[in-house]
Amino acid sequence: MTNTALASTDAWLLYEPTDSAPWNVRRIVRLHRRAGFAANWSEIQRDLADGPGPAVERLLCGQAREVHTHSDFETMARTIGDAAQASGNPDRLMAWWLYRILLSSDPLTERLALMWHNHFATSNRKVQDLVLMREQNELFRAHGRGPFGELLGEVVKHPAMLVWLDADSNRKGKPNENLARELMELFTLGIGNYTERDVKDAARAFSGWTITSGGFQYKPTWHDDGEKEILGHVGDLNGEALLDILLEHPATARRLAWRLCQTLLGEDVALDADIDALAAGMIEHDLDIAWGVETILRSQLFFSDAACGRRISGPTEWAVAVLHALELCDPPPSTLLVAEWVSRMGQELFYPPNVGGWSEGRAWYASRMLVARANFAATLATGSLWQPTRAPALQQLVERHRGASDLPSATAWFAELLWGHVPDGTVAEILSATESNDGNENLANALAVLLARPESHLT
Amino acid sequence: MFTRRQFLKAGSLVSLSPLVPTVWARTARAAVAAPDSKVLVVVQLDGGNDGLNTVVPFTDDAYHRARNKLRLDPEKLHKLDDRLALNESMRAAKEVFDDGRLAIVQGVGYPNPDRSHFRSMRIWQTASFDDAAHNQYGWMGRALDGSRIEGGNEASAIYVGQEEVPVAMWGRRSVATAISRADDLKLLLPAARASAVNVPSAVPADSLQQFVTQQMLGAYTAAERFESRAATASPVSYPDSQLAPRLKLIAQLLRSGSSARVYYTQQSGYDTHAAQLYTHASLLRELAGALKAFAEDLREAGLDQRVVVLAFSEFGRRVAENASAGTDHGVAGPVFLAGTPVRGGLHGAPPNLTDLDAGDIKMTTDFRQVYATLLDEWLQIPSIGILGEEFTSLPLLRTVGG
Q1: Is the dihedral of CA A318, A324, A325, A328 positive or negative?
Q2: What is the pLDDT of residues A169-226, one digit of tens each?
Q3: Alpha-carbon distance A432 to nearest alpha carbon in chain B (angstroms)
Q4: Does this model's pTM top 0.90?
Q5: A37 pLDDT exceeds 80?
Q6: Spatial distance between the Cα atoms of B217 and B338, rounded to a whole number of angstroms
Q7: Average pLDDT of chain A to the nearest whole number
């Protein structure tokens, strides 16, 4: 982790527990909720005992989740994916991905795949092909933690993206700028770092890229081999050359650093100087995503008080976090139902709202989306996410981990598990809002009400 | 441009007010579309509506000659003037017309008409004739792109129905969302609100936590409000049909303070190739009844000044009926605009049934003129950037500007 570029700011120094920033449940909850769809109680206790080094290490090498019964996970996931693909039903493809996210032993890889799905936002509403959508999703998994150049090349040349951004209709003499523009604005440089002339000539550079029988193909006869000038580079530039130019441009590293900070740190946590330093570090590391992720997850900034409560969990993250933390995945809920709820909360997987992706952060707080979150919580607590309906054994869960299961203790434990701490007065507030004569129903209601509180969405 | 700083500032205004209904109305998203801004509701009549049997030229001999089995009895029609009348099943629409709240634009179409449902619908939805553009962005999506604020919360367009959000609403940056059922807007466990009301007092006014808390409270309260308004039911009763519940849901959304500027829904079944008399009349009855109920509902709620409804179909049908007592795909047809702000009456030149183009009437009004009118004079979004060229507005609206 030695890096000269990083030294310009303290943000990326290695976090080590101190009296003022101790290693505690709150920091562990933050780590897992941001990077791995939450931890359950045993995982939290394990990390508490081992310290931050091993905790982060386990996330990075796909061992954060305690192994449950699913040693045949990959086989099972493939079978579900194949069936979803064969059915032609996009809901089942959403359910397939949620199955992966819920049960994979490598939640960080799934978290980053979700980030890339937003970065390279491609919607099946236009692609209309579940095979291509699934293939693209597998690219996010296979390359999502490697050098960005490899990921970019794979994704941009994949038919899902070529269809989505009309690369097929971009030909010599008949340019279509869609791919060229979004590539610069969204996937690499970011707005303000290129001119309209760059976009025009970039479209010409891409001419000749097309799709045949489901795969990428370059057709020299469709390529405009005239001279182009893109970002100061002059010549008969083709698509490959253009990607190289974009990857070398410092704005691309900056945008990547920004994307990682947005995903792992939240709103206004990393200052401009911090993002600049991270970007400089990424350039020194060949835009290696894994390096950037590790740097953030081990940093003082990540575990600082300033980073506390700065990030709003997105719908998929939130729904899965709740299910995993409460150990509700054995048996797993109906992933079709979870997918439907996540869509109502505003994140219809494989159908981002536009090429810019979901806005994230505060944009997750549209009223309908919040009502859906509260209703998801109520549905989960009553067991209606399972088919047939199966009320979660909350009483036993709390007893096992806390020793007691009276309503106040249980509510406090839920808060500690999901929020990492129990703010003064919240237990009383939740209990006063929850009134029922039935003991078990009370516990379920208390959980639902707790999940519908603001603290549950912020990490 | 709306910067993050302004956004936070708008957010902190919210936090000064502990009273929830104002929170709902005044959060930062209101800047996207304040709940008092003008709204467009689009009803897509899917399949190609037979315009000649909708707005019937009942005195025209050419009509009677062309329609042997499908000819409508002039006695039963609802006369609009001494030459044109509405289908006998459209009494409800006639009442809206008599009330001055229904405008009928005749002969609306586009040059070089296409008789494919798919392509013609794409032309209407994207306002483009370029096939490559037909899978990109819709005319309303493009219109809303410009008015969207970075980081805005609410969808600027809402599709109501079971189907996918139509391409008309796809934008490069604007967000359209689909709602299929009223249940999506109700809170299952009301206790959630009781608990969320307790905002920690120590939280700084412009913090993320404050924002989250206020949004949540606003959302839960809106849900409660939605439910209570829905439960107390407007005095208007909607007919039982496919379209009416959808328009009712749009009215409910508007009543509960939704800030979307465009709503879109559809009524399908207009592809009447055979034995169309009964089917077509039922569809029109449903359309007329739903439009009237919707108009009354909005008036009851005091929202009618804010809302204009546009009903269109991808094409009309041929002048001559076919051998199966139906009609085949044609070209131009009537477009409806309904609402208090609308200048009611007949607009545009009526089609000439003796001057046909290969059996089809010639269009007399370009559909993009209707769009330009709605964009420039109603939504107040300059149409030239959306339509790519300038189209003359039509005098379809009562009040202009404001």
Answers
A1: positive
A2: 888 988 888 899 999 999 999 989 999 999 999 999 999 999 988 799 999 999 999 9
A3: 8
A4: no
A5: yes
A6: 35
A7: 93
Give SS3 for B312: strand
| Amino acid (one-letter) located at B299 | R
pLDDT of residue B8: 27
**How many Å lie between the alpha carbon of B217 and the closest alpha carbon of chain A?**
9
Please calculate the CA angle B281-B84-B273 and round it to the nearest 5 degrees. Answer: 35
- For B23, the closest chain A residue by CA position comes to A367
Q: How far apart are CA A112 and CA A118, in angstroms?
A: 10
Dist. CA A269–CA A9, nearest whole Å: 13
What is the separation of C-alpha B210 from the centre of its chain, rounded to a whole number of angstroms? 36
d(CA A16, CA A23): 8
**pLDDT average, residue stretch B29-44:** 70
Residues of A with Cβ-Cβ distance to B219 under 8 angstroms: 365-371
* H-only helix segments in B153-207: 191-196
Closest residue in chain B to residue A430, using alpha carbons only? B195
Q: Burial level of A117, CB count in 10 A (0-12/13-18/19+)?
A: buried
The complex scores an ipTM of 0.86
Q: Do A374 and B187 touch (CB under 8 A)?
A: yes
Show the beta-strand stretches assigned E in A191-348.
Answer: 209-212, 215-218, 228-230, 233-235
Asked whether A208 and A244 are in contact (CB, 8 A), the reply is no
Residue whose structure tokens are 């209904």:
B21
- The answer to whether the beta carbons of residues A148 and A247 sit under 8 Å apart is yes
Nearest to B279 by CA among B289, B288, B267, B271: B271
Q: With CB atoms and an 8 Å threshold, state whether B150 touches A176.
A: no
